[in-house]
Amino acid sequence: MESGELDLAQLTPKDAQLFEGREGYACYRMKTSDYRGIMFNFQHEYWKKNKDLIPAVCYALNRDAMVEAVLLGQGVAAYGPLQRNRYHAGQTLRYDYAPEKSKKILEEAGCTMGSDGFYERDGEKVGFVLSVGAGDQVRLDLAQASAQQLKEVGIDCTVEVPVQVDWSGQMAYLIGWGSPFDADDHTYKVFGTGKGANYSGYSNALVDRYLIQARQSDDPNVRAQAYARFQQELAKDPAFAFICYVDADYVAGDRIRGIATDTVLGHHGVGIFWNITEWNEV
Questions:
Q1: Distance of CA 42 to the CA centre of its chain
Q2: Which of 65, 167, 277, 279 could, after both became Cys, cross-link 258 (CB 3.0–4.6 A)?
Q3: pTM score
């Protein structure tokens, strides 16, 4: 952007700040349906034994603090996959930041605090490795912040950046998904048992039922009820520990006019060109 090689680029919040108020540039912050969260790998032996501890992970995350520190305030806390979709039903169960509740869940599950400051269960330390794909600094920062917050409640979480993602072998992954379009666009393939993008191996019969009910109807009222039940069941039995929705920061040369921000973009900020027929160059 600085050399003039690009007319438009999506940048991280920190990089986009470099262009704020500079002559020759225009900055656009756009809402997205693009969320980040910790995806648990239920194919891993650890979660087969400790799935009941996942709510403790969810309550340990200070989402608002991460939005401010990592996203520079450019996003919102996430509690479910459809917050920026027409079928968002609100969260009947919301995992707000509650470290004492997190510890209570661990202790009621039989975990005891070890001398090193981490909980133990059946002689095994409570904790997991959180993997992050290479090349995404925002995800890495979110993962490191999450690991620090989990350590503060006694869950030993460490972060790694593997050379290659091992979907079936890793313990957890800093995932990103989201669609502002039809809710079926990402929920069915991500949370449906055995579906193509269900990298976590998550399986819940009620979730499957509600997602199928929603995709088999073209009645908005029927679909709204089905997606509301889906969101409620997913909150009871989390596949992810949702963290935040990220805004998309675009920087353009100021000679480009007509870029409109009154829409919701998709995963990875897809959709910036939604009104490109109205763009022009001066």
A1: 17
A2: 279
A3: 0.94
Q: Following CA atoms 182, 187, 192, 196 in sequence, which dihedral angle do they give, to the nearest 10 degrees? A: 90
pLDDT (tens digit per residue) in 61-109: 999 999 999 999 999 999 999 999 999 987 668 999 999 999 999 999 9
Give the residue ranges of DSSP H helices in the chain: 13-17, 45-50, 54-59, 63-69, 99-108, 137-152, 184-191, 205-215, 220-236
d(CA 157, CA 199): 20
CB 57 within 8 A of CB 229: no
* Token duo for residue 148: 């620090």
Strand partners, 156: 127
Backbone angles phi, psi at 131, to 5 degrees: -90, 150
**Encoding tokens for residue 276?**
């490109």
Q: Phi-psi region for residue 213, left (φ > 0), alpha (ψ -120 to 50) or beta? A: alpha
Is 247 within 8 Å of 155 (Cβ atoms)? no
